[in-house]
Each structure stands twice: as structure tokens, then as C-alpha cells.
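User: Write out your own:

AI:
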Amino acid sequence: MYRVFEALDELVTIVEEARGLPMTASCVVPRGDVLELLDDVRDALPGEVDDAQDVLDHRDQMIGDATEQATKTVADAQAHADQLVTSARSEAESMVASAQAEADRLVTDAHARAEQMITRAQDDAARIGQQAQEQAEALVTRARAEAERTVSAGRAAYDAAVADGQHEQARLVSQTEVVQAAHLESARILDAAAAESDRMRQECDTYVDATLASFEETLTGTLRTIGRGRTSLRTGGVAEYR
């Protein structure tokens, strides 16, 4: 590259020292020397300059090719992006549909379990009610039997006392005080039998009432459980049964 600048300096010197032509701005230079210096300049120029000139000569074509390639690249990228968006949208819709189907299945299963639990609770309530009713009827039957037995025993005691009194009265017809005592004893025995019968009947009624109250509490708890199950079924949840 140094030879280029040296040859150019020599050409400037030749032109400056050349003999001028009269009445003109032209001058006479040695052709051979000038051509030799120009050849030196041409030989000294690097090949990259020539390549750069070729690039400049084909600049428009290269710019057009680059623009076309860039346009094609952008179009391919846009098509690929559209494909990715379409695929992602399709996958998202599939996932949403699967999630919705799973949610519907879970809700259906929850409703079915709630229905089963309510059915079992109703069956248990009916069974408990039947058992309680049978127990209550059995208790009432036993209480009535016991009351009737007590009344019968009281009547038998009364009849025996009356018979004894009558016998004693016949034997002691002349003894007024003894007869009065027999009457009083008979009345006392009868009153005692009636009081015992009333006491046993009251105890029986108390026992039956306590049993029915316990049964009522059990039924109330069962009805609350059924109510919670129905409420949960209407609201779409699952109730906790205790």
C-alpha cells in the first residue's frame, strides 16, 4: 500500500515539473514514465479494493437478494409463529375441555355419594324409629301388665282382707271395736294397694317418657344429618355426617 502513495507522489512531481504549453494550462509529461507509475499503482493496490469495487457494482443486486431473503425469513417466522399459536390454542382448548369433563365427573360423583349417604341416613332413621317404637310398645305392654298385676294383687289382697274381715266379723259379731279395726285394716290395705299401683304406674310412665325422649333426641340428630345432606346436595358440596 506504501508503493501506491509513493507512485502518486511521483506522478504529482512529474506534473508539477512538466513543461507547460504556451497560452494553455496543459503541459507535456513523459508518457512512458507516467504509464509506468500508473502500472505500479495498479499493481500495488490490494485485491480487496477490486473486490470492494465488485461489491459496489453488485450492490443493488445484493441488497435485493438480502431484502428478498429477509422477507422470506420474516414470512417463514410469521408462519411458524402462527402455527405455534394455533397449536397452543388447540392444546389449551383440549386442556380446558379435559378439566371441565373432570370437574363434571367429580361433581356427579359427589352428588351420587351424597345421595347414597342421605339414603343410608334415612334407612338408619327408619330402622332406629322402628326399633324405638317396638321398644316403646314393649315397655308400655310390660307396664300395663305390671299395673294390671299390681291392681289384681291389690284386689286379691282387698278381697282376702274383706273375707278375713267378714270372717272375723262373724266370729266377733259382739265385739264392735274388733269389727271397726277390721274395717280400718281393710281400708288401709286397699289404700296401700291403690297407692302402690299408682306409684308403679307413675314409674312406668316416667320410664316410658325418658325412653321416648331419648328416641326423640336420636330422631332429631338423624333429621339434622339428613337436612345437612340435602343442603349440601343443593349447594353442590359434600356434607360431613356424624
Remarks:
- The chain has a mean pLDDT of 78.
- The longest strand covers residues 19-20.
- The first helix runs from residue 2 to 17.
- Residues 124 and 222 are 8 Å apart (CA to CA).
